[in-house]
Automatic annotation (TrEMBL):
InterPro entries the UniProt entry points to: CBASS_pafABC_assoc_protein, WYL_dom
Annotated WYL domain residues: 5-68
Taxonomic path: Bacteria, Pseudomonadati, Pseudomonadota, Gammaproteobacteria, Lysobacterales
Pfam family, one: WYL
Species in which this protein is naturally found: Stenotrophomonas maltophilia
Designated name of the protein: WYL domain-containing protein
Source organism superkingdom: Bacteria
């Protein structure tokens, strides 16, 4: 999945329909609201609100098999999503960023 496509969805605040491959190779489909693309040494991670899970999720860009930009914008602003994520992580005592060992897998 090209990072330009992901960055466009973030910039336009548009929903993405993802075909995502987990560590075991199983593919799932989901609609997400992408709001950040984070770069690590070994992986790029898309941070998004997942409609299926009703929660924030991190998606390794190299595991996104397909992403389709949807016509509609997501209902909350990107900045509001990032602020909500920070509050959620702070309240739970977690770091804003995913654990590094989960990225290395």
């Amino acid at each position: 999945m090209g990072q330009d496509h992901l960055r466009l969805a973030i910039r336009l605040e548009r929903r993405l329909y993802l075909h995502y491959r987990d560590a075991g190779g199983r593919v799932s489909q989901r609609v997400v609201w992408p709001f950040a693309l984070v770069y690590f040494e070994q992986a790029r991670v898309l941070m998004a609100w997942c409609e299926q899970r009703g929660d924030f999720r991190n998606f390794r860009a190299d595991r996104i098999a397909q992403a389709e930009l949807q016509e509609d914008r997501y209902p909350r602003r990107r900045r509001a999503l990032l602020q909500a994520l920070r509050r959620t992580r702070d309240d739970a005592g977690h770091s804003l960023l995913p654990e590094t060992d989960s990225i290395d897998r």
